[in-house]
Amino acid sequence: MAARATPLTFDSGRKQIFVVGNEAADADSLVTAYAIAAFLDSSEVQGVALAQIPREEFRLRGDSLQLFKEAGSEVLEDGSPGKLHFWDEIDWKAVDGLDSRRLVLTDHNKMTAQVARHFEGRVQWVLDHHAGGGSYPDAKSDIDESLGSASSLAAEQFMARGIDGMPLELGVLLAGVILLDTRNFDPKENKGTPRDRAAMDRLAAFVPKIGHDAWYKQLMHARKDVSHLSVRELMLLDTKVVTLRGLQVAFASMMSAMPEVMSKASGCEAFKETARSLARDRGYKAVVCLFPKDKATGKKGLALVPLESSEAEGVLCSDLVKELLGTPGNLPQELRENVLYQTQGLVETGFQLEHMPDLEPLEAYSIKADVSRKTLLPLAMNLSKI
Ligand SMILES: [Mn+2]
Fold first, then answer.
1. 67 lies in the same domain as 85
2. Range of the domain at 246
3. Residue 7's pLDDT is what?
4. Above 50 in pLDDT, residue 28?
């Protein structure tokens, strides 16, 4: 196991071709970028696989974590692949200095703004299964919108070289993603096409001995499993960042109930410190966590952690609490007419926010179980206006 990422040094004797997947950085995007970079690597070309996330966030993708491990890829202590280069690790000045650099897009067909800043006019090839396309008429294009997985396209490239051209590591990675993306070719899901099936059949030798069905179940379980994640990682897992009164606030949908998360954090004070440290690192002024329903109370949980309670973000958090406590009486007409406010019964009952003094110094509350981030956010956005 390598202790650190393979340092990305540019070989002056070869042309650099960067390969990047989409910004969601799901298994299909990560694996196609990784595989196509390896495919392109030669005595003339240095293939560089790129992920549009910081390395810290790789572990949040449990399916990818498991797949790279199973494939025998060289991984770091956190399980992230050493040969995959993450957005926070790139020396962009050095990249911009590579005059002949080119870009390949996998699993999307239009550069994100952050990628375009470094590769405008340099897209050479697009392998994708999304609608759209046509953004780069001069680039080679392999786009099939009907496909379940872009990994099927990547597999075809290796197959065209003959089966001997497919290394074991990449065969396992691509087969695993095709199974995930096609939902194991379940006809009810209608995601896998005959073209995906043909790619999968040619990768049959890379499926582990347990067989397709059991492997698919394991990978899906790994995708949903959050037991390996730290409290900080749980906060990163499903976070929306919004600007309220000019301040960046992260709204995290937590995957475990409040009591479990507090015990994982070793207490409310440590939880609060974890949230503040995340806020500092990411430039947030506050982190608001919404926890799933706690079986014991039948309610969800809400915790608000401003970076500094004496500053503007502290006022913002207490104003949000006041606003929540004032519902339903204070709901503006626009939210009364909001369909989700109606289906969650918020127009009649309000958010049913109740302080949980036992969790101090953490500012924690129980909240009506029907509430979701989709209804919490509009109220916060409304607050930003007043
Ligand atoms: Mn995809």
1. yes
2. 231-385
3. 77
4. yes
Q: Give pTM, 2 decimals.
A: 0.86
199 lies in the same domain as 249: no
Cα 2 to ligand 1 centre (Å): 29
In the chain, what is the greatest distance between 2 CA atoms, to the nearest angstrom? 70
**How far does the centroid of ligand 1 lie from the alpha carbon of residue 129, in Å?**
6
Residues 203 and 240 both lie in one domain = no
Q: In terms of DSSP bridges, do strands 123-128 and 102-106 run parallel, antiparallel, or are they unpaired? A: parallel
Measured between alpha carbons, how far is 269 from 272 in angstroms, rounded to an integer?
A: 5
Instruction: Give 22 Cα–ligand 1 centroid separation in angstroms.
Output: 8
Residue 222 CB contacts under 8 Å (≥ 6 apart), including other chains: 62, 63, 65, 66
Distance of CA 356 from the midpoint of ligand 1 (Å)? 43
Rounded to the nearest angstrom, the distance between the alpha carbon of 107 and the centre of ligand 1 is 5
Average pLDDT, the chain: 95
User: What does the pLDDT read at residue 1?
Assistant: 46
10 lies in some domain: no
Note the pLDDT tens digit of each residue in 186-234.
999 999 999 999 999 999 999 999 999 999 999 999 999 999 999 999 9
Rounded distance from Cα 149 to ligand 1 centre (Å): 5
Residue 184 CA to ligand 1 center (angstroms) comes to 15
Statement: residue 5 has pLDDT above 90: no
| Of 189, 224, 259, the domain-final residue | 224
Number of other residues whose CB lies within 10 A of the CB of residue 26:
18
* 242: β partners: 249
**147 C-alpha to center of ligand 1: Å?**
9
| Rounded average pLDDT over 3-12 | 79
How many angstroms separate the alpha carbon of residue 162 from the centre of ligand 1? 24
- Residue 100 CA to ligand 1 centre (angstroms): 28
Q: What is the pLDDT of residues 81-132, one digit of tens each?
A: 999 999 999 999 999 999 999 999 999 999 999 999 999 999 999 999 998 8
Residues 6+ apart with CB under 8 A from 34: 19, 49, 81, 83, 84, 170, 173
The total number of structural domains that make up the chain: 2
